[in-house]
């Protein structure tokens, strides 16, 4: 079955941060859109040293998701249409009042990240090494496969009753436990040579 990391989230994150993730989760549920927090955040959460680096992958239109959050909760948006990405900038925002189904929570700005990146799930292919990738819409599974190392391919689903479910298609958890930094395919360093530096 699927592992659920909600208890780990509650143990390691501040109540403000959890309430903020819940806000995004509830919003995604209302839009009937699967959303996932991905990458370094999940890796560091499992190591019990979570950051506030929230990268959200949307199985759908990330720009629409970010814009609708900004309309409801303020802040600013910057978008990148070619890649289907948006940054929701919430630094210096007023206190957000978040209507979670269980309670009205005041979220203090110190518990919020400066910004949140929303990314439409996508797959990429390179016309030639080091080229800017060609992009097309895709599933969470393929989106995670375009990342650098297996330990950065884990995702936590947030929407609805899926809150806290771990998605680990590419063996990231096992590699994290074993201390392996493993690329996902043989051309990984050809596609992006800076991964050599990131690996170190």
Number of strands: 11
Radius of gyration: 17 Å
* Count of separate DSSP helical elements: 8
In angstroms, what separates the terminal alpha carbons? 34 Å
Low-pLDDT regions: none
What structural class is derived from the secondary structure elements? Answer: alpha+beta
**What's the SSE pattern?**
HHEHEHEEEEEEEHEEHHH
> What percentage of the residues does DSSP assign to strands (E)?
15-25%
Give the fraction of residues assigned to helices.
25-40%
Strand order of the largest sheet: 3-4-7-2-1-10-11
Averaged pLDDT? 88
Gross morphology is globular
Major β-sheet annotation = 7 strands, mixed
Describe the structure.
By secondary structure, the chain is of the alpha+beta class. The protein contains 8 helices and 11 strands. It has helices at residues 6-12, 15-30, 40-46, 62-73, 140-145, 172-178, 188-191, 195-199; strands at 35-38, 55-58, 76-80, 85-89, 96-100, 103-107, 115-120, 122-125, 134-137, 155-157, 165-167. A hairpin with a 7-residue loop joins strand 10 and strand 11 (165-167). 34% of the residues are buried.
